[in-house]
Specification:
The structure holds 2 protein chains of 2 kinds.
Chain A: E1 5-7, E2 10-13, E3 19-24, E4 31-37, E5 44-50, E6 53-56, E7 65-68, E8 75-79, E9 88-95, E10 107-108, E11 112-116
Chain B: E1 4-7, E2 10-14, E3 19-25, E4 30-38, E5 44-51, E6 56-59, E7 62-67, E8 72-77, E9 86-94, E10 101-103, E11 107-112
Classes of the chains: A mainly beta, B mainly beta.
Chain lengths: ~120, ~110
């Protein structure tokens, strides 16, 4: 079974440029998460989708970040414009079931390492 | 604020040694606690998942314990090997957080041959 796929794996851009990350979750997984991991820290949730609905985006900086999950499968996370402080690893994860009592393991992709110069 | 803390931040041990990694959390109202492994440049791999009703879980040389009342978990690694070198992350799913994982900062483990 294929795992969570993310692309690109690495991205280097200059500040004020836009950037987009793509995630394909494990087939059949209804819940999708985007996390940001700063160097030396644990991941922090940016947004959670249940199917195509964003049910928790409280940590997403909405002035410059946006995300979508059309048709409840693939997802794209965008930053426009990027700032120096956005340099981090962006991780996508998925889990099978829905709901606030979700106790399933989350399966993580390899991440996209973003460097903003 | 619901927080997860891991100590130490880094640990270096000789091969063959048994070791313990620590995780503490601020709220006992949890659904579960997970231990993950992260290799450099890679994503996270789930090692053990302990539901709130459980006290421990074991997988091979790994044993994780959970004490909700004290807000603590430990990950015990027996007979460590150089291949165990990685960063180990503890993550908690608290009530009323919709399945969101709250991660600790991680412990970077180095096992020397």
């Amino acid at each position: 079974e294929a795992g969570v796929v993310q692309s690109p794996r690495y991205k280097i851009i200059e500040k004020k440029q836009p950037v987009a990350f793509w995630c394909n979750p494990i087939s059949g997984h209804n819940t999708l998460y985007w996390y940001r991991q700063n160097l030396g820290q644990g991941p922090e949730l940016l947004i959670r989708y249940e199917n195509e609905e964003a049910v928790d985006d409280s940590q997403l900086p909405k002035d410059r970040f946006s995300a979508e999950r059309l048709k409840g499968v693939d997802s794209t996370l965008k930053i426009q414009p990027a700032e120096l402080g956005d340099s981090a690893v962006y991780l996508c994860a998925s889990s099978p079931r829905l709901g606030g009592r979700n106790t399933d393991t989350q399966y993580f992709g390899p991440g996209t390492r973003l460097t903003v110069l | 604020k619901q927080e997860v803390t891991q100590i130490p931040a880094a640990l270096s041990v000789p091969e063959g040694e048994n070791l313990v990694l620590n995780c503490s959390f601020t709220d006992s109202a949890i659904y579960n606690l997970q231990w993950f492994r992260q290799d450099p440049g890679k994503g996270l791999t789930s090692l053990l998942l302990i539901q709130s009703s459980q006290r421990e879980q074991t997988s091979g040389r790994l044993n994780a314990s959970l004490d909700k009342s004290s807000g603590r978990s430990t990950l015990y690694i027996a007979a460590s090997q150089p291949g165990d070198s990685a960063t180990y992350l503890c993550a908690v799913t608290f009530y009323n957080q919709g399945g969101k994982l709250i991660f600790g900062q991680g412990t970077e483990l180095s096992v020397k041959p």
